[in-house]
């Protein structure tokens, strides 16, 4: 099990310890035209921490809202907030002033560090907390203030169970929930999935798309590499093509992104030298088998699927290598337990679909939210996912609990129909939902984006319906097919099914 000392500052453990152990000259961060060693990153972090304390007057426990794309200074800012004993409140770059105001109120934010490129939405706030801009050449910007601080900054002596991070869920179903995480949680996620499943090492180079403001990216592209003395590549505005090019350029070995991105990279993969890639991780939403198979055929790599959640900070069920079972997300990673519950909260046996519940070193704490009692039962997190377990303890994703389609008495999981559709050569993307129907309660409706060169017409719709019927139980076929130019997705790569329902 994971044991951490009662006094623990996670940045001292991740960064200062690496430098003290002689790792100061190793590369910590690559970015466009930039390369920071561990010692350089430590120096930047210390400078920002001094600014927080001396210039902004912050004290341990204060909450600092962070806004920025993935770049080295954004990473230094996050680490500096934690090192100074403050609490980081990262926010997704695309959030608007109204959403930011809700987070600032809810998290009782004391100060803001915001990339200059994102200043519009902070300026639009009625009342913004004290703010410093970064990625900015101005005389009053963070960088100018950092330059005045040259002394090392000693990590604040926090308790292992002091809160260091408040991360907000995306809130597709209501007001976003703030999830709270401790210094020890930061180390715990580094000592679970990366050890058991990635087997990450000091010579790894991490790369990928999730924003540092999303715990998927914060862990995968910053905390995990630091924990083992590895390097990370932080790039903004990645496209499938530019990510492939960057993997080749930086000789990246571990890649994190969402299923859609892998789907889009697959047909382009053969044009790039991907020989450095060792592990490719898919998370954020269900990985269709068609996507896994396509990626493996194009690259020779067995995709690592992993389910994570903001509530639990990072991935808690996954599998790699020999452990991969077709169609399954995997097994709880060592340190975590998972089970399937029925509607009354009783565990169900193998082969029965129910609500996924997870328990482990992280999770279970919402920031002052009455929904705590709905999502946390007896120390178990209910993730909102419908899952099924097999006799060997593998966990199979079916759908979000609220998205299960019930048609003429049958339960139909949209992702299964999506996987069937994605195997058709004409289908680039698809989203399957249930729409109200007088006779059947709900009927299955597919929203389909075609690949270039295919024509949306009734003949193709009929062909897709027949194609689905040949692969899965015919009652699951989409009775309605709507062709779309694109599907609505969140900044984190998740299909917004609720938007399809109102289209
Ligand atoms: C869904 C998946 C099937 C699932 C996240 C990795 O996605 C992350 O966190 P969020 O809070 O969303 C959590 C929900 O997303 N999901 C995520 N991964 C998978 N569904 N298969 C998967 N592999 O509904 C879950 O409840 O945005 C992912 C690491 C950190 C994260 N925060």
From TrEMBL:
Annotated keywords: Ligase
Domain called AMP-binding enzyme C-terminal: residue spans: 416-494
Domain of life assignment: Bacteria
Domain AMP-dependent synthetase/ligase: 20-362
InterPro entries listed in its UniProt record: AMP-bd_C, AMP-bd_C_sf, AMP-binding_CS, AMP-dep_synth/lig_dom, ANL_N_sf
Name of the protein in its database record: AMP-binding protein
Organism expressing this protein natively: Janthinobacterium fluminis
